[in-house]
Design a protein that fits this description.
The chain has helices at residues 3-15, 19-31, 33-36, 40-43, 47-54, 63-81, 85-89, 103-116, 121-133. By secondary structure, it is mostly helical.
Amino acid sequence: VQYKDGGRVGQAAVTYRQTDMKDKCLAFIEGHTKSIVKTRGFHELSDPALLTILQSDLLTIDEADLINFVREWAHVNSVVLDKPVPEIGKEVVHELRLFLLTPEELTILEAENKKDNFIAMDKIAEVWKFHALKKSSGIAVHLLRRRKGTRPRDHHKYLSLYHK
């Protein structure tokens, strides 16, 4: 599998429920995430295929970068499917680990978000609340785990679980 084909093969595996092939493609994508997200095949992923990828703790890319590539995916699919960006991204944004971002990164994300409303404001408000209170109670556990490629940040010590 080449980088440019990783997303397409993974897409086929999810579409046709080929578990073994899906697992192998996911392992390839996990090991080469930074290259895969830059391909046309990544932009062509369906919601279910992208959700499968975003549920992984082993992606080798920083969360801030991953969020930008997923936003790009939503913009491409918005044009192709002639639907608004928020509608395209409504399912996948739930797998973005916004709590891993610093307040500075969140400020930048919020400014970007004003242009396209990719992420619902209540989700961003929930992250601001976490930063203000330094408590992670009530937050889905997987959203607090660092992915393999996520750079450590000072506030991660307030997360109850993270990738080691």
